[in-house]
Specification:
This protein is about 20% helix and about 30% strand. By secondary structure, it is α+β, with helices and mostly antiparallel strands. The protein has a domain of about 140 residues. Bound molecules: 2-acetamido-2-deoxy-beta-D-glucopyranose (5 copies). One 2-acetamido-2-deoxy-beta-D-glucopyranose (NAG) binds next to loops.
Length: about 260
């Protein structure tokens, strides 16, 4: 082999390795599907609620949103589950990343037939909105003569106790006197005052605000490049689906080639 041939051979090897490297680097970010792009460009629509990223459900497959942000359309009512409690979504504001939600199990008033759980939010995903109070519903209380004159006095028949005396209170999630069978804490908008509990049922139906904490910055960048936002649940992060079927990078390139 002459030295010229040898140089030519080296050049070929170099080009081959370079091409291989390019493939190795680029292939992962080029794996995507047009289905994800098309599906995640669609909005969830149900009654008055319209939602995009980070939600999924209905015509938006799981790849379009955070695994825990599943919306369910039934009739024209939208529901979602947070920590095993079902909520009706009354409104959704994607600008402020706020949901107004009301507990399905308290839509009929403060006296459900069985003991329900207190609301807890998934801290990783939600914060409370600015204007809420904790309404505590005390069920199965004794010493009714003492309670009957209390502003939040209720009579409720619930499973597990024959005691029908109950009362609602604000920010009182402990039963200091040990008079009651159970206490359920439900956030409400600050429309109930501690001296007037006539609006308790209404307050439960009107719900309260939560802010979702999924970062929107990456999604905005993605949409700015005409991509569709989605969620990679194996990597636990926001992802971007492009029209050219690429995904995995933060944005879509204008030329339609993988970045
Ligand atoms: C949606 O809600 C309906 C009615 O409440 C229920 O039957 C169904 O299982 C729910 N679907 C999902 C995916 O949660
Ligand atoms: C939807 O909500 C309305 C108002 O609360 C209620 O009357 C209706 O039964 C609900 N529909 C379904 C399918 O849950
Ligand atoms: C309401 O209750 C929750 C859960 O117990 C608690 O984390 C939160 O600080 C309470 N908020 C107010 C305003 O008392
Ligand atoms: C409580 O609120 C209701 C409804 O707004 C009102 O009709 C009633 O007069 C109020 N009661 C008191 C004691 O302020
Ligand atoms: C997902 O990512 C968030 C934010 O980076 C982190 O707080 C959370 O623990 C992660 N969850 C899982 C299941 O990896």
């Amino acid at each position: 082999m002459s030295s010229q041939h040898f140089l030519f051979f080296l050049l070929l090897v170099y080009l081959y390795l370079a091409a291989l490297l390019r493939i190795l680097i680029e292939i992962p970010s080029c794996l995507g599907s047009l289905e994800d792009y098309t599906a995640c460009n669609k909005q969830f629509k149900c009654g008055t609620i319209t939602a995009g990223f980070p939600f999924w459900g209905d015509y938006r497959p799981e790849s379009c949103g955070h695994p825990k942000l599943l919306l369910n359309c039934s009739g024209s009512n939208t529901t979602t589950e947070i920590m095993n409690i079902k909520y009706r979504i009354l409104s959704l504001n994607s600008g402020s990343q706020t949901l107004r939600i009301a507990r399905e199990d308290y839509l009929n008033g403060p006296c459900p037939s069985k003991v329900l759980s207190s609301t807890t939010l998934d801290d990783e995903l939600f914060d409370y909105g600015p204007d809420y109070r904790n309404l505590s519903l005390h069920y199965g209380c004794s010493a009714s003569s003492l309670l009957a004159t209390a502003p939040g006095y209720l009579t409720c028949t619930i499973d597990g106790t024959n005691n029908r005396d109950a009362y609602a209170a604000l920010d009182a999630s402990t039963d200091i006197l040990g008079l009651c069978f159970t206490i359920v804490v439900v956030p409400i908008l600050a429309i109930v005052t501690s001296t007037n509990f006539s609006k308790v049922g209404e307050a439960l139906r009107r719900g309260f605000d939560v802010k979702w904490k999924v970062d929107n910055e990456e999604c905005n960048e993605c949409m700015g490049s005409n991509g569709a936002c989605g969620y990679d649940s194996s990597l636990n992060r926001t992802t971007c689906y492009c029209k050219d079927q690429s995904s995995g990078s933060r944005t879509c390139s204008p030329s339609g080639t993988c970045q």
